[in-house]
Amino acid sequence: MEPSFAGKVALVTGAGSGIGEATAKLYAAYGAKVIVADLNEKGGNAVVDAIKKGGGEARFVKCDVSQAEACAKLVEETLRAYGRLDYACNNAGIGGEQNMLADMSVEGFNKVIAVNLSSVFYCMKYQIPAMLQNDGGAIVNMASILGQVGFAYSAGYVAAKHGVVGLTQNAGIEYSAKGVRVNAVGPGFIDTPLLSQADAKTKEGLVSKHPIGRLGTSEEVAELVIWLSSDKASFVTGAYYPVDGGYLAP
Ligand code: NAP
């Protein structure tokens, strides 16, 4: 049986594009009202329009998740709009500066930590109390295969994603018994605008690292987020789930 999120409210960050977009649309398809949060107004509003066209309910909230106050406001606006918060997918992220560690700028390192890691702390800090006001909830943080292993020229990104896995474990330990399950998803390389800088040869190289022989799709990641959010995953918390075409298997 498919999960039903009727009467529930889901918040997705970075929902104006790629994995976040697919996740927001799938939450809506299963009946949740969705807050589409993104820095990118054009992308976010387009996702809201698509959800509404499909008969769902959604609202766009502009939010820079690297700012704690903006994350607090995002949760306030969610409660003002829909009165509750049941599910959150903390997904917004950037690729960040690519350089050998000693050549990586301090600004570049700090930026990817702010957008990809501190944001997850800020979001959970405000989402968890909001969930506890009602029936609890479920949080899915977007890590990466690079939350488990390294990747050359990406020290900041790799450090941030390892941090997301650690934050997820801690939140799971602290809040599962209170009614908020917290898990992390680790996509392999997924064909989204995030990979738009990669040329054909680089993409080929990335494909070769996935035993399944291709990159993933945003929808394949969204399916795992939905399952982890749903009651079908009622005993799953504090955990990391790869969705990576076998990248981590060898
Ligand atoms: P994407 O298509 O670039 O979408 C990310 C969205 O987040 C964009 O709309 C982006 O806006 C937005 N965003 C960027 N900085 C933000 C901020 N400070 N506050 C709010 N929104 C912000 O990327 P994606 O591939 O779907 O990636 C989503 C998540 O999956 C990221 O956390 C990424 O690290 C993770 N992931 C991706 C892959 C992959 O191969 N694609 C693999 C593993 C993990 P702009 O368009 O304005 O930048």
Write up this protein.
Pfam families: adh_short_C2. Belongs to the short-chain dehydrogenases/reductases (SDR) family. GO terms for molecular function: oxidoreductase activity. This is Oxidoreductase. InterPro entries: NAD(P)-bd_dom_sf (IPR036291), Sc_DH/Rdtase_CS (IPR020904), SDR_fam (IPR002347). With 250 residues, the protein is of the alpha/beta class. The chain has a single domain, classed as NAD(P)-binding Rossmann-like Domain (Rossmann fold). Helix content is 43%, strand content 16%. It has seven helices and seven strands. The protein has helices at residues 18-29, 41-53, 68-82, 106-132, 155-175, 200-207, 218-229; strands at residues 9-13, 33-38, 57-62, 87-90, 137-142, 180-187, 240-243. It has a seven-stranded parallel beta sheet with strand order 3-2-1-4-5-6-7, with helices on both faces. Helix 2 (41-53) links the parallel strand 2 (33-38) and strand 3 (57-62). Helix 1 runs parallel beside helix 2 (41-53) and helix 3 (68-82) packs parallel to helix 4 (106-132). The chain starts with 8 loop residues before the first strand and ends in a 7-residue tail after the last strand. The structure holds NADP nicotinamide-adenine-dinucleotide phosphate.
